[in-house]
Amino acid sequence: MITEANAKPNGPDTREPQLITRAQQGDADAFGELYRMHHNVVAASISRVSKNPTLTEDLTADTFVKAWAKIRTFTWTGTSLAAWLITIAGNVVANYYKRASTRRLTLVAELEEAADAWAAPSQTTEETVLASLDAAGLRTALARIAPRHRYVLQRRYLEDRSVPEVATELGISTGATKTMAYRAIISLRRQYEAVAV
What we know:
The protein is mostly helical. Helix content is 70%, strand content 0%.
C-alpha cells in the first residue's frame, strides 16, 4: 500500500524550497512534511551501515532532531535537502559507533559524581534540559520523581545506554522506553522548577 509518507513523486518536489523556508522560520508542520518526504532516504542510508532496524530508526530520529536544530543554517542551492540530511546522518552514525567503541558502563555510586555527567556538553534536546540543572536542585528533583522514571534517566543519560538496551532491561518496547524517558524528563523539570521556586 502506498501512503503519502512513502509515495514516490514523478519528479522533484517543487514544495521543498517553501517548506524549508517555513521550517527555518520555526514552522514544525513544514519540517514534519520535510521529514515525511525524506525519512525513507535517510533510513536507507543509515541501514547500509546498521543492519539492526531498531538502531536504524533511532539513528534516523537523531538525524532529524539534529536537522531540526540546525535547519536555519541550511542554504537552498537548488538541490534537495536529502543530501544535507544524509551528511548529518553520516555524522550521527559515526558518532554513535565512536561512542559505542569507547563506552564503559559504570554504575554511579553517588549522585555528586553523576552531577558532572548531567552538566556535560549536550547534543540532544533532553540532554540540553538536563545540563541546565544545578546539582543540588537536581538531587532534590530526582528524589521526588517516580523510581521508574529515575531508573530510565540514570540508565539512558548517566550511563549512556541506548534505547534498545534500556527497553530490554525494562521488558518494554523501544517506543515505550522513549515515551517513558520523555515523561521522566518532563517530571524532572517540573520537580526541579518546584524546588527552584
